[in-house]
Amino acid sequence: MNRKLIAGNWKMNGLRADLQTVRDVAAAINKTATAPDVLLCVPATLLAQAAVAAEGSALKIGGQTCHLQVKGAYTGDISAQMLQEAGATHVIVGHSERRTLHGETDEIVAAQALSAINSGLTPIICIGETLDERTSGETLKVIEKQLGGSLSGLTDAAAFVLAYEPLWAIGTGKVATPDQIAEVHDFVRRFLMGRYGQAGDAVRILYGGSLNPGNAAEILPISNVDGGLIGGASLKAADFLSICMTACALTE
Ligand code: 13P
After folding, report:
1. 229 — pLDDT class (breaks 50, 70, 90)
2. Which residues have CB under 8 Å from 58's CB, separation 6+?
3. Ligand 1 near 63 CB (within 6 A)
4. Is the CB of 9 under 6 A from ligand 1?
5. What is the pTM (predicted TM-score) of this model?
6. Structure confidence at residue 33 as a pLDDT band (50, 70, 90)
7. What is the CATH number of the domain that holds 117?
8. What count of other Cβ atoms lies within 10 Å of the Cβ of residue 76?
9. For ligand 1, is residue 243 a contact (CB within 6 Å)?
């Protein structure tokens, strides 16, 4: 069984006052062998301060996207190296909101992931199908295509994390059923082992989409679910910590 990773994605939420949430989470989690890894991906403006707030604790801090280049004339963008220097250890790439609203393709996502790895960050590469794709029975075909494209050029299975986030479950309160989650996660595991051999077994595959304290105990034990990527429920320390506790109880 892989050590679980409980990751929060604050998206475009969070002002300086919300650093208290980071402090509360940092103070509550521990470093025991059975504890999950815990990560908060905060807005870039808070990253350096969040990293300071988490110092000395087991809490890790991450970014939410990065450019595929290290530097250059890319107004408004942020590079993996910048995130790393500000204190990030991880960065989300290919979140569906970036793919949909910013036109990020599988090729771009793969290049972003490589840039993250080259800058010493662990990319969390997101994949997931739309409701239309699911209802027309194309889920696994879509997932396979996204995996093939988004992992292009990534030769080290130990260097990245995957997150399966069905688009129709993000921010909607609609959670995929355990059977739907297991089907995709098992498929992703087979894909990874086909591509990376035994090393593919150790890649962590997170589930994301309306994960909350009320459903974590049902979702986190599913086979090949190695943690969660949590949006709304990561904004409140108590909710996020409750999910961390559920993950902790599973490994004890
Ligand atoms: P919610 O947990 O708010 O559904 O968001 C999931 C997500 O997109 C995490 O990246």
Report:
1. very high
2. 26, 29, 30, 31, 35, 37, 38
3. no
4. yes
5. 0.97
6. low
7. 3.20.20.70
8. 5
9. no
pLDDT above 90 as % of the chain? 94
Question: Would you say residue 52 has pLDDT above 80?
Answer: yes
Phi-psi region of 75 (alpha: psi -120 to 50; beta: other; left: phi over 0): beta
Count up the domains in the chain and report the number.
1
Other CB atoms within 10 Å distance of the CB of residue 2: 14
Worst-scoring range by mean pLDDT, 42-46, 92-96, 157-161, 244-248? Answer: 244-248
Q: How far is the CA of 118 from the centre of ligand 1 (A)?
A: 27
Check: CB of residue 124 under 8 Å from CB of residue 163. Answer: yes
**Is the dihedral angle over the CA atoms 35, 191, 210, 67 positive or is it negative?**
positive
Chain centre distance of CA 115: 17
What's the confidence (pLDDT) of residue 157? 98
Q: Among 166, 132, 126, 165, which Cα is nearest to 146's?
A: 126
User: Which residue's C-alpha comes closest to atom 2 of ligand 1?
Assistant: 231
The predicted model gives 76-99 an average pLDDT of: 98
Ligand 1 centroid to 137 CA: how many Å?
A: 23
Q: Which residues are catalytic?
A: 95, 165
The DSSP call for residue 174 is: P
Domain, as residue range, for 111: 5-251
Contacts of 197 (CB under 8 A, 6+ apart): none
Longest dimension (CA), the chain: 50
